[in-house]
From TrEMBL:
Gene3D superfamilies: Homeodomain-like, Tetracycline Repressor, domain 2. Keywords: DNA-binding, Transcription, Transcription regulation. SUPFAM superfamilies: Homeodomain-like, Tetracyclin repressor-like, C-terminal domain. It comes from Streptomyces coacervatus. Residues 37-56 bind DNA. The keyword DNA-binding applies. InterPro entries: Homeodomain-like_sf (IPR009057), HTH-type_TetR-like_transc_reg (IPR050109), HTH_TetR (IPR001647), Tet_transcr_reg_TetR-rel_C_sf (IPR036271), TetR_C (IPR011075). This is TetR/AcrR family transcriptional regulator. Pfam families: TetR_C_11 (PF16859), TetR_N (PF00440). It comes from the Bacteria.
Length: 197
């Protein structure tokens, strides 16, 4: 049964999958998660609803995978500059200011939707949160191995919170989108001193 499901799922080419994910993100930006329907995705992408459900199971998984696919540039796993500062700066430089602004608005909307939707939370945990946390743990382990960070530093458990916090709070507190300059200075002033103390 699993082999049949895998064979069915493999019919979508990577190019077609990227096109579908782009359309999903466009629709999310236009109508938000709650108003997004599989009918709308099918119409926008000229797909059958049956294909969408067979490939992704439902809206929550489709949205989570679309957001994950949209992450720019090399993954954290592929970034290894030889220093924690270099790795975090490289991560930040993957997106230009326009992308950061668009992604900030999208993530604010999805964060609100997650609160009332356990399926979306589960999909985000599986496809975004847990993989990102695993990547950050590898980056931190390299920093520990290089002697930049103490293994018993209590800030290690809060690194992802610090990174997301700076990104999310910029628009709330300063009423401005996050920019590369802001995030790089935030990393230097807040994240690195906490981790390298």
């Amino acid at each position: 049964m699993t082999e049949v499901a895998t064979a069915r799922r493999s019919r979508i080419t990577p190019e077609r999958e990227a096109e579908l994910y782009g359309a999903v993100l466009d629709l999310l930006r236009e109508v938000g998660y709650d108003a997004l329907t599989m009918d709308a995705v099918a119409a926008r992408t000229k797909s059958s609803k049956a294909t969408l459900y067979r490939q992704w199971g439902g809206k929550a998984e489709l949205v989570a995978k679309a957001v994950r696919h949209n992450k720019p540039g090399p993954s954290l796993e592929e970034i290894d500059t030889g220093s924690l500062k270099g790795d975090l700066h490289s991560l930040t430089r993957r997106s230009d200011d326009c992308d950061l602004e668009a992604n900030s608005a999208l993530m604010r909307g999805l964060a609100m939707a997650i609160h009332g939707n356990p399926d979306l939370l589960k999909a985000f945990r599986e496809h975004l949160i847990e993989p990102e946390m695993a990547e950050f743990r590898r980056v931190l382990q390299r920093a520990i191995d290089r002697g930049e960070v103490r293994a018993d530093n209590p800030a290690l458990d809060y690194m992802i919170h610090m990174m997301i916090g700076g990104f999310a709070a910029r628009s709330i507190i300063d009423e401005q989108p996050p920019t590369q300059d802001f995030l790089l200075s935030y990393i230097d002033a807040v994240v690195l001193p906490a981790l390298c103390a």
